[in-house]
């Protein structure tokens, strides 16, 4: 439950940890100051109590008996000091057992004697009560009561203000330091995401701390190596395609001119076209991602691809589209992906194809559904790998290379999306092209009805 509120970015996590550390350090600092201030204040209060006791006793002894009551009233009114005789029936409550009052009692007894008694309240009257004899020879003792506020300590608010200001300044500096450290990591993360989509990002600046600079240099070298390997692969396959298509063209011409039997000529031409289509699929799979993304009417694109397939092949194809927003995509690549999905459904799905498209939860779902034999659930993910086929689950069509779904998966990842395959309710296969309407990615549940995202 609490994990939802835990920060996910390194910047916020590090800043939060540093802020907590600073707050704890300032709290410990304030606590230490308060604790170290207790002992001097307790000794000061003890010295004050001793002075008040001695002065009060001296004043009472020196004053005429008829003036003593007036003197006691003056002490009570002006200084808050009250004198009471100790009675046997007094209800005495001890002072709180705290380090402050322990130091106070020790300092006071060191001056007035160990027989001095202390109380926090006498007869339910709170205060700081200290016993003393008026004359050393008399057994009668008196209580001297000081106001309890003399033991209170008001925390200096200006310290709190300066402490908060220091904490805010430290947190600001911590934010600047952490953001400076994580900025190169954020750029590296964005570049790594681009490489994962098959793109070739601009080189990352190789500056900052030596560890970050070396990391950026290593990543730049890796990105350049991948770019070079991708270019070399495309160049090699393009050369192979050119070398193969030239003799294929001669074979097609030779078959048209030399083979008299119409059926045999059509069979040879069909084999040549199949070989040419296989070469084309290899090129589609190896083709680079140099096409620029541009705003596109997705609904119009889907209808255009569906109409093109309907004209070229004899199949029953139904299209149901919701109102779709324009999306910035690589138009040719997305056309290739939709064509592959529809061709896959046409070849293996028995001829009845349904295409739906809708937007839900920030994603665009394009579903291509057929009513063929379907695919076992344990084989769904495997069939998205290159050169993988599963003829036992579908029809016995054997003119493919196993690259169709792999090409769709690559194009979906290029757009930050994914390809999902799942059994269709009632029989058949549902192939979902899941494209985010923004740069965010999320896994999407599968269902026969694209509008019901809670079903699988």
TrEMBL record:
One Gene Ontology MF term = ATP binding
Coarsely, its chief localization is membrane
Give every HAMP domain span: 179-231
Q: Which Pfam families match?
A: HAMP, HATPase_c, HisKA, RisS_PPD
The organism's superkingdom is given as Bacteria
Keyword set, alphabetical order: ATP-binding, Cell inner membrane, Cell membrane, Kinase, Membrane, Nucleotide-binding, Phosphoprotein, Transferase, Transmembrane, Transmembrane helix, Two-component regulatory system
Which residue ranges does the record assign to the Histidine kinase domain? 239-439
List the SUPFAM superfamilies hit by this protein, alphabetically: ATPase domain of HSP90 chaperone/DNA topoisomerase II/histidine kinase, HAMP domain-like, Homodimeric domain of signal transducing histidine kinase
List where in the cell it is found. Cell inner membrane
Query: What is its membrane topology?
Result: Multi-pass membrane protein
Say yes or no: keyword Cell membrane present.
Answer: yes
Cited SMART domains: HAMP (SM00304), HATPase_c (SM00387), HisKA (SM00388)
| Annotated transmembrane regions | 12-35, 157-178
**Entry's PROSITE patterns?**
HAMP (PS50885), HIS_KIN (PS50109)
The enzyme's E.C. designation: 2.7.13.3
Q: Which reaction does it catalyse?
A: ATP + protein L-histidine = ADP + protein N-phospho-L-histidine
Please identify the protein, giving its name as recorded: histidine kinase
């Amino acid at each position: 439950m609490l994990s939802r509120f835990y920060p996910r970015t390194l910047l916020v996590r590090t800043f939060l940890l540093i802020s907590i550390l600073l707050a704890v350090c300032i709290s410990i600092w304030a606590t230490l100051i308060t604790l170290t201030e207790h002992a001097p204040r307790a000794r000061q209060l003890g010295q004050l109590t001793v002075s008040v006791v001695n002065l009060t006793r001296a004043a009472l002894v020196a004053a005429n008996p008829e003036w003593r009551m007036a003197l006691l009233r003056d002490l009570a009114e002006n200084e808050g000091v009250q004198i009471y005789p100790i009675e046997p029936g007094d209800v005495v409550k001890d002072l709180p057992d705290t380090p402050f009052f322990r130091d106070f009692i020790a300092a006071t007894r060191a001056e007035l004697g160990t027989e001095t008694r202390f109380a926090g309240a006498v007869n339910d009257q709170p205060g700081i009560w200290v016993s003393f004899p008026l004359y050393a020879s008399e057994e009668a003792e008196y209580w001297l009561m000081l106001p309890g506020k003399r033991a209170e300590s008001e925390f200096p608010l200006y310290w709190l203000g300066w402490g908060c200001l220091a904490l805010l300044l430290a947190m600001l500096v911590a934010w600047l330091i952490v953001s400076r450290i994580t900025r190169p990591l954020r750029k590296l993360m964005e570049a790594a995401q681009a490489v994962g989509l098959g793109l070739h990002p601009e080189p990352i600046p190789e500056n900052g701390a030596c560890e970050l600079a070396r990391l950026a240099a290593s990543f730049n070298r890796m990105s350049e190596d991948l770019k070079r390997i991708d270019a070399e692969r495309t160049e090699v396959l393009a050369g192979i395609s050119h070398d193969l298509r030239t003799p294929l063209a001669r074979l097609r011409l030779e078959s048209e001119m030399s083979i008299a039997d119409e059926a045999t000529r059509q069979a040879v031409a069909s084999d040549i076209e199949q070989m040419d289509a296989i070469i084309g699929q290899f090129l589609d799979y190896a083709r680079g991602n140099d096409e620029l993304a541009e705003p596109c009417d997705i609904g119009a694109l889907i209808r255009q691809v569906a109409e093109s397939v309907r004209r070229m092949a004899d199949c029953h194809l139904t299209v149901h589209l919701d109102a779709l927003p324009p999306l910035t995509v690589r138009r040719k690549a997305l056309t290739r992906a939709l064509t592959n999905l529809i061709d896959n459904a046409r070849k293996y799905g028995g001829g009845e194809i349904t295409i739906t498209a809708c937007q839900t939860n920030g994603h665009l779902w394009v579903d291509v559904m057929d009513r063929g034999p379907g695919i076992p659930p344990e084989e769904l993910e495997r069939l998205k790998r290159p050169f993988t086929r599963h003829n036992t689950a579908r029809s016995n069509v054997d003119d493919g290379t196993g690259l169709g779904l792999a090409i769709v998966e690559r194009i979906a990842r290029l757009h930050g999306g994914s390809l999902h395959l799942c059994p269709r309710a009632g029989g058949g296969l549902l192939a979902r092209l899941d494209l985010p309407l923004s740069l965010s990615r999320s896994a999407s549940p599968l269902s026969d009805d694209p509008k019901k995202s809670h079903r699988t």
